[in-house]
C-alpha cells in the first residue's frame, strides 16, 4: 500500500500540458497458493473425478494432482485522487483459475459529498456476504479462502450506483452502503463450465441492496439485504433460448444475512448466517470459525454449511495463519467436504484436501 | 549474576515503555480522547472536537515507534492494522493515513499545518507543536 505519487513530474507535465495534476496511488494484493485433493469420491453420475471446488464463481477446482492455479491471483489497484473529494479507481485482477487472463474487476468514480456520505458509480463487487467485496484480498482475512460453501453465487459483480455512509451512534461506529444496478454475464463461468456444458448468459437485473455494520470495540455486527430479478439464456447446439422457471421467464431473488464477529483479546470468532429466497425456494448458508492468536500465528477451525432442496453440502476446515512478514502471511489449511446432495444436485462429491499459500499486500 | 539480570530486564522494560506524544499545531484548542484517537487512525473520524478537519499522519512500518503506536493506540498488532486497511483500500471504503519516515518529518508537518495530527516519542517533542495526549 505504498503510495507512489506521480504528480508534478516535470516530464509528464510537458508531455501532457492540459492534464489536471492528480495523486496517483498504486497498490495491490496477491495470493500464491497450491493444493491437492488427498482423497475424494467425485460424482460418478457426472463422470467427475475426486474434486474440491474451492471457489464456486471462478470455478477454482483442485484434483488429485498438485495445482497452483485454483486460488492464486494478483490484483493491481490504481486510484487517482482528483482532489475536492473526487477520485477514480480501477482494479485489475489476474487469476490462475482463468489462466492469469487479467481483467478489470472494479472501475468506479467516487465523490465524497460530506463526512458521512460518499457516492460511487461504476463497476464494483456485489457486497452480499461479509467477505464478498474483499474475497480476493487474502491478506485481509484469516483463512486461505472464505468458506466455499457460503460463497457459491455465480454473480459477484454489478455495474451501478453505490452510496456509502459512515457515522457514529453513541459509542457505536455505524457504516454501510445502499446500491442499485445490474449484471449481465454473457458467458457465466460457473453455470457454463461446472454446473453445465452449454453456454449460459446470466442476468441479475433491478438489483437493490443495502448493508449496515455496527462496530464497537471487539464486536462487529453486519446486516445485509439484496433483491434482484434473474433472467437466463442458454445456447444449445448453436440455438439460444430463454430459460423458463415454472412457465415464467423471470424469477425474483431476495437475499438476507447477518454476520457477527468478535475479536476479543486473542480470541477471534467469525460467523455468518444467510438465506437466498428464489421465488420461494430457500437456499440457506451459515459458517462459524474460531481462531486464537498466539503472537504471529493464528490457528483456526471452521465449519460452513449449504442447504437447499437437493443441493446439500458442508466443509470442516482446520488451518493456521502465520504473519511472518509485515506485508505477508503464510497459510496452511485442510478441508473436509461432505456432499449430501440428492436428486442429481451433487456438486463435487466428498473430498479431503490440503492447501497452502502466501498472501501479500503492497 | 542476579543483579545483572534485574538491571537488564529493567532496561528492556524501560525502552519498550517509551511514552508516545500525540501532537498537533500549537493553535489547536481542542481536546482528544483515546477513543477518538483510535477513530482518527482507523478512518472512522475525520474531524477534531471543534469540527475542524483532522488529517492523521502515520510513521512507516520500519520505524519501531509505529508498532508501539498500533499496540497502544489501536490495541492491534501492525499486521492486524494492515489487514484492516487492506479490506478498506481494496473495496473503495477508505484510505490509510499518509506515512512518513521519521519523528522529524511528523514534527515538521504538524508545525506547519493546523489540520494535521501525528505522534512522536515523548522526548522528541519540540516547541513548535502542542501535545494533545500522551500514551504511556
List the helices and strands and how they pair.
The complex is a heterodimer of chains A (362) and B (136).
Chain A: H1 10-15, E1 23-40, E2 52-55, E3 60-62, E4 73-81, E5 86-95, E6 103-112, E7 117-125, E8 157-169, E9 172-185, H2 189-194, E10 200-216, E11 219-236, E12 239-242, E13 251-264, E14 267-278, E15 281-292, E16 297-307, E17 312-325, E18 328-339, E19 351-361
Antiparallel strand pairs in A: 1-4, 1-19, 2-3, 4-5, 5-6, 6-7, 7-8, 8-9, 9-10, 10-11, 11-12, 11-13, 13-14, 14-15, 15-16, 16-17, 17-18, 18-19
Chain B: H1 2-16, E1 20-24, H2 34-40, E2 55-59, H3 64-74, H4 78-89, E3 98-100, H5 103-112, E4 116-121, E5 130-135
Parallel strand pairs in B: 2-3, 2-4
Antiparallel strand pairs in B: 1-4, 1-5
Describe the structure.
The complex is a heterodimer of chains A (362) and B (136). In chain A, 3% of the residues lie in helices and 59% in strands. Chain A is mainly beta and 362 residues long. Chain A has a single domain, classed as Porin (Beta Barrel), CATH 2.40.160. In chain A, the strands form two sheets. In chain A, strands 1-4-5-6-7-8-9-10-11-13-14-15-16-17-18-19 form a 16-stranded antiparallel beta barrel. Chain A has a two-stranded antiparallel ribbon with strand order 2-3. The longest helix of chain A has 6 residues, at 10-15. Chain A is globular and about 60 Å long. Chain B is of the alpha/beta class. Chain B has a single domain (18-135), classed as Periplasmic binding protein-like II (D-Maltodextrin-Binding Protein, domain 2, 3-Layer(aba) Sandwich). Helices cover 40% and strands 18% of the residues of chain B. In chain B, strands 3-2-4-1-5 form a five-stranded mixed sheet, with helices on both faces. The longest helix of chain B has 15 residues, at 2-16. Chain B is globular, with a radius of gyration of 16 Å. Residues 1-15 of chain B have low confidence and may be disordered. Chains A and B meet through strand 1, strand 6, strand 7 and strand 8 of A and helix 4 of B.
